[in-house]
Design a protein that fits this description.
The structure is a homodimer. By secondary structure, chain A is α+β, with helices and mostly antiparallel strands. Chain A folds into two domains: 11-77, Arc Repressor Mutant, subunit A, CATH 1.10.10; 81-239, Chorismate lyase (3-Layer(aba) Sandwich). In chain A, 27% of the residues lie in helices and 31% in strands. Chain A contains seven helices and ten strands. In chain A, strand 1 (64-67) and strand 2 (71-74) form a beta hairpin. In chain A, helix 1 crosses helix 3 and helix 2 (37-44) crosses helix 3 (48-60). Chain A starts with 10 loop residues before the first helix and ends in a 5-residue tail after the last strand. Chain A binds a DNA duplex through helix 3.
Chain lengths: 248, 248
DNA sequence: GAGTGGTCTAGACCACGAA
DNA sequence: TCGTGGTCTAGACCACTCG
């Protein structure tokens, strides 16, 4: 066999998805063990490297834990783990944006005042552009959250590239305008799902929602972009690892 | 050559640390490229796999970005994350623990099984100690969240110091037993406030709550301590900063 | 002692980016 | 076109866990 004619997707991602699906469907119960690496090699007809890359992904998604000597244990079955977001760095934010899809509505002009001005870190009266959107997971393509994106009018040009390439909005601004993001500040809270967002996401109004507000700041502390997201509580968990240092 | 007599540390971690140090020292300036994988293989006398594992680590630390065709670019000179971010974040955790007050209830013995075993990353049947508590802000002294703390029976001695000094539980374990926390994994989600917690916190059952589950891990990946907290949504927001150092 | 995942080698072809 | 990183194979030894 050997040389695989790849259909565009890396084999290890395919395998990761199959295993992910099987976990969600209950083929591998929570608390139980996945087949060993060796068995998976035979099952999928691939080398150990490929299997290990797939398992690495499952571990990064927090679906399994792995320990030498004892095996690969399933720790979560809930499909929301699929959308669990694990951030230690901006690179993770970017990866998350690539694994999902953000569909944005038409441009609106808004004036920063009151709570919005505070959110944007802008002077009251300043003009901003707003795009109401919904973020979907790629497969299955289900809505995860509503997202309102705010950018300064100067960056209106990135509109042309909305949806044309996956990735985070801030990358578009960096690429088109050379305005570098130095810092992201985010606030996470629990809120009651408002009626409008509930309808879009297909949940009951008033059900619990995870709200995330992000500000993307330039080196001088100016807000370049901001976003307000409301996540279905049952499909989203924010996970993070805090490492003390790099020595182990 | 071949078989390396390893001094205990994986070779790829050694290489990662050497490259990290060189970046910090300015040998590879921000914006510049690291040597190619091939060159690094020759330099260190290792296979490409080992070099790639080392580079993967640098990427996870946000020190470099990698793109096929163009190379490995240095994006940060400061080892942010290893020290800056995680240190800052752990410090934040500690600061939070100092600004508030955790009142713990009596010791209970619990057996890890099912969901609890998964939470603790423990084998089913293992014995743990549980303390149900409530965290208050110092002034005004109002309840912020309920917190269940889980520790291994070996660390029962820290009970004596509950409430005698402010700070996080994990610090007590580190000080009394010398068991160092290497990593904290946390999951943040929105949930409906359960009846019992609602009574303690003085809110309506079913109102939105921010749930935070934390596992404190030793260097070998063992869970030292775990906690489950439910926060009043109106009194708690989780805020964080993701910095990208060295952007020029 | 048997079997697990962790590390490592020495090859190979492929997709992409820049000259 | 050429060199980069991305994917992949088929081996190997090692450290750890558990019966």
């Amino acid at each position: 066999m050997s040389r695989r004619a790849r259909n565009g997707r890396p084999r290890y991602l395919e395998i990761a998805r199959i295993l992910e699906r099987d976990i969600v469907r209950g083929k591998y119960p929570v608390g139980g063990l996945l087949p060993t690496e060796n068995e998976l090699c035979k099952t999928f007809g691939v080398s150990r490297y490929t299997v290990r890359e797939a398992l690495r992904r499952l571990r990064d998604l927090d679906l399994v834990t792995r320990r030498q000597g004892s095996g690969t244990q399933v720790i979560t079955r809930l499909p929301r783990s699929t959308y669990t977001q694990s951030f230690v760095s901006l690179a993770d934010l970017l990866q998350y944006a690539k694994d999902t899809y953000l569909r944005l509505g038409p441009r609106e002009k808004v004036t920063a005042r009151g709570a919005l001005a505070r959110l944007l870190g802008a002077s009251p009266g300043q003009q901003w552009l707003k795009y109401a959107g919904v973020r979907y997971s790629r497969e299955p393509a289900v809505p995860i959250c509503t997202t309102d994106v705010y950018i300064r009018p100067a960056f209106v040009g990135i509109e042309q590239r909305f949806g044309k390439q996956p990735g985070a909005i801030y990358v578009l601004i960096e690429e088109m305008y050379g305005e570098k993001i130095a810092e992201v500040v985010q606030h996470i809270s629990a809120v009651s799902m408002p009626v409008a967002a509930a309808r879009v996401l297909g949940v009951e109004p008033g059900s619990p929602a995870l709200g995330i507000v992000r500000r993307y700041l330039s080196g001088s502390g100016q807000t370049i972009e901001a976003s307000v997201s409301l996540h279905r509580a049952d499909r989203f968990t924010y996970s993070m690892r805090i490492r003390r240092d790099g020595t182990h």
